[in-house]
Amino acid sequence: MGRTTYAALAQFVPSATDEVSARMNALPKLVFLDSLADPLGWKNTRLVKRPIADEIKALKQQRGDPLRSIGSISLVKSMMQQGLVDRLRLMVFPLILSSAGREPIYAGYSQAGLELINTKVLDSRVILLEYRPVRRSAS
After folding, report:
1. Backbone phi and psi for residue 12, each to the nearest 5 degrees, phi listed first
2. pTM of model > 0.85
3. Tens-place pLDDT, residues 76-116
4. Residue 27: which residues within 8 A CB-CB, separation 6 or more?
5. Cβ atoms of residues 3 and 35 within 8 Å
């Protein structure tokens, strides 16, 4: 995760007792940021200062659960641009923001083809869409 996501989640998840928070607390977490210093206050969290591509490529060589990013729009954008994303999972929360809305989250992204590989309705409001980036072949 990046700075904004870490700052938001680290405020409440470490002390929360629900099932999702307990799982997040148990999982190893990485924060890609130059402006924080070790040790980070959230259990199982490591600060990464080396280039994102180097760290992600090294982690992909290890065994274990798939790597995930929660939020962190800028981090995901950087990983997409570097071809490091194998699957993109988007959760759609229907909410009309009107004038309170912010800039489009994909502004500035390079054009990328996506292949829909899975959909799941999580509850009466949330839909999970899972895509695989379509790699362009060199001609």
Report:
1. -130, -30
2. no
3. 888 888 889 999 888 888 776 666 666 666 777 777 789 99
4. 44, 65
5. yes
